[in-house]
């Protein structure tokens, strides 16, 4: 039987505290310190995943550290906690384990974790890139943007996901701005993009300035707090927020009815999947990183796939082919944990048109 596991963790303490009765009434910091001592937990059994070629089943395994603790605690301590979760996955019978949310970015992005386990490991970043790009480009089309005439911004461009997103997106847009903190790495990436595509990408560490001229934004940083607010975006902007926790403030959805924010990497899983756990998605849908782990299992690919910070275009192309083979596909658009209909997108587009006309008059 093909088997897999996927490691999850609470983005904030409320994800765990609401499940633990009286403990959930304690102050958040005390709760975090208590859960820090808890061993990894088997959350649920995942069944019903199949295509015409293969089937698989697996488990959700929880590493009980919040996103904040994963950033603040010593790296070695966090790695040991994640490795323990991976060993629980092994005990359960998984042949490959996927790293979810911050477990995929700690230290060397999965390499050390893989060295300490006897099963294959993937971060899921290859399929995350594939679905983010596919989703962003389709959303831009629906919002009336011609990619060849559009200016795109990649926030977190020097990270593993952002780097490949930028290289691939550069082939389709008129101009591109790369945003990150490390100037040297930005310059190196910009040179590579110019060599590959002829596009002279601009670089900056000033997110707010970069966003003012963007029609398409892909944001994929490991920031714990939101970094994009309602005042940062022009009317009609399409933002694909791949990050967890989110880079885009919920205030954008509340205050800006003329921009479209979508979640990167929302995937329809083939078969009649039952996750036996509610992580906020409608039935049958998953994050792209989860889907990559499932499809590698279905394909019998029990070797390490997406690890480290040197994600390649070839990996993205390969996982896209595996997804197509097993009928994994983009499941429409979601924004702040709810589905976005074609009618809503048309309304956002119309409000954006009005907003841009007003800007032109001013």
DSSP strand tally? 17
Structural class: alpha/beta
What topology, given as strand order, has the largest sheet?
A: 5-4-1-3-2-13
End-to-end distance, in Å?
Answer: 64 Å
| Overall pLDDT | 91
Q: How many structural domains are formed by the residues?
A: 2
Compressed to H and E, one letter per element, the order equals EHHEEHHEHEHEHEHEHEEHEEEEHHEEEH
Question: Uncertain regions: pLDDT < 50 for 5+ in a row?
Answer: none
What is the helical fraction, as a range of percent?
25-40%
- What is the radius of gyration? 20 Å
Largest sheet: 6 strands, mixed
| Number of H- or I-type helical stretches | 13
In short:
This protein is an alpha/beta fold and 362 residues long. The chain has helices at 14-17, 28-35, 67-72, 75-92, 111-115, 125-142, 160-169, 183-197, 207-211, 250-255, 288-298, 313-326, 342-361; strands at residues 3-8, 41-50, 55-62, 96-99, 120-122, 151-155, 175-179, 202-204, 216-219, 238-241, 260-263, 266-268, 271-274, 285-287, 329-330, 333-335, 338-340. Strands 5-4-1-3-2-13 form a six-stranded mixed β-sheet, sandwiched between helices. It has a six-stranded parallel β-sheet with strand order 8-7-6-9-10-11. A three-stranded antiparallel β-sheet has the order 14-12-15.
């Amino acid at each position: 039987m093909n088997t897999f596991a996927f490691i999850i963790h609470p983005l904030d303490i409320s994800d765990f505290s609401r499940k633990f009765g009286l403990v959930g009434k304690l102050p958040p910091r005390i709760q975090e310190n208590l859960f820090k001592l808890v061993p990894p937990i088997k959350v649920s059994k995942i069944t019903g995943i199949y295509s015409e070629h293969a089937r698989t089943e697996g488990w959700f395994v929880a590493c009980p550290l919040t996103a904040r603790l994963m950033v603040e605690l010593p790296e070695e301590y966090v790695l040991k906690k994640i490795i323990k979760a991976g060993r629980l996955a092994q005990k359960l019978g998984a042949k490959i384990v996927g790293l979810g949310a911050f477990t995929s970015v700690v230290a060397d992005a999965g390499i050390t974790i893989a060295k300490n386990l006897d099963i294959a490991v993937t971060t899921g970043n290859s399929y995350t890139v594939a679905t983010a790009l596919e989703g962003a480009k389709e959303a831009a089309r629906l919002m009336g943007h011609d990619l060849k005439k559009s200016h795109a911004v990649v926030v977190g461009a020097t990270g593993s996901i952002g780097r490949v997103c930028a290289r691939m997106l550069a082939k389709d847009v008129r101009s591109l701005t790369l945003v990150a903190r490390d100037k040297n790495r930005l310059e190196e990436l910009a040179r590579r993009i110019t060599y590959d595509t002829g596009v002279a990408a601009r670089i900056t560490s000033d997110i707010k300035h970069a966003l003012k001229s963007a029609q398409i934004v892909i944001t994929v940083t490991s920031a714990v707090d939101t970094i994009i607010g309602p005042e940062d975006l022009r009317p009609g902007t399409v933002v694909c927020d791949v990050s967890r926790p989110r880079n885009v403030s919920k205030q954008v959805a509340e205050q800006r009815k003329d921009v479209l924010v979508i979640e990167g990497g929302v995937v329809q899983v083939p078969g009649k999947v039952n996750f036996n756990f509610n992580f906020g998605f409608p039935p049958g849908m998953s994050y792209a990183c989860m889907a990559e782990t499932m499809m590698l299992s279905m394909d019998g690919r029990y070797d390490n796939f997406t690890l480290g910070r040197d994600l390649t275009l070839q990996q993205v192309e390969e996982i896209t082919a595996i997804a197509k083979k097993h009928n994994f596909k983009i499941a429409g658009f979601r924004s702040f944990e709810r589905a976005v209909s074609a009618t809503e997108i048309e309304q956002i587009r119309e409000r954006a048109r009005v907003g841009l006309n007003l800007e032109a008059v001013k």
